[in-house]
Amino acid sequence: MRPFARKIKENGVGFRKRKIDVLQVNMGRYCNQACLHCHVEAGPGRKEIMGRETVEAVLQFLDGSVIPTVDITGGAPELNMNFEYLVKSCVRLERHVIDRCNLTAIFEPGKEYLPEFLRENRVELVCSLPCYLEENVNRQRGHGTFELSIRALQMLNQLGYGVPGTGLTLHLVYNPLGAYLPPPQEQLEQDYKRVLMETYGIVFTHLYCLTNMPITRFEKFLKLCGEYDRYIDLLESAFNPATLDDVMCRTLLSVGWEGSVYDCDFNQMLDMPLRDEEGRPLKIWELAAHTVEGQGILVGNHCYACTAGTGSSCGGALTA
Known about the structure:
Helices cover 32% and strands 11% of the residues. The chain has 320 residues and is of the alpha/beta class.
């Protein structure tokens, strides 16, 4: 494999941060699910949880910046006891809030109020539904998750989420079930909308297609199936230089559960933090947003996943 750093150099790209417009906050690795593709390796047994002190540091950093959007992820971020405090504090700071929700978390004990809470705070939802077929979802995410996901979407629709004219945004996320690239996003979105409406009466705003990252849990899955080398070759051969200008790491800053900062959530899982001049990992309480702008972005061969085919980011495909 040709190193990704050499690949982008050959394409004449100066890979540096631009102005940060998204602060992505990973609230920890605790989750009520343990999906096969999860690059966070989240699950019910994980203990890494963002504490209140780190949440306060995130808010102080945000207050000293003009970053317009806070993207909250996990694990299942809603299961962190500080989730509601973080959301309400970001709203008070007049920032747009995104919650990356696995849909089933709202059925966990004591979380029944979440849908109303999210609506009251006008939180944008980005929800995982890797297929519109029950068998495929349950195979990837666990038995019974499809039924719960459909119930959650119907409940959110009743509150106005995904319904045109309400201003309550509900995006769904697709990712492949195996070692292949996502199909064209626009075409698949039409299929999702048709099937979910005809079968379950569900509406949503847009579909995001994400490429599976060959790291951590999905890497182990690929190697177990004997598909790892073929998938890596696929990603490299599908490299698309047109995606380089819009990959999320150019305008996003990622914060880990313990306060370390990264160029993206994938680098976070690979322990590739931003570092100071002495090589020590930087913490969110040591930074100001403007100091990150113009800095070089840490890359590795896993970056081929974000630049393959139509590209992949937290907002789905990057090119048509």
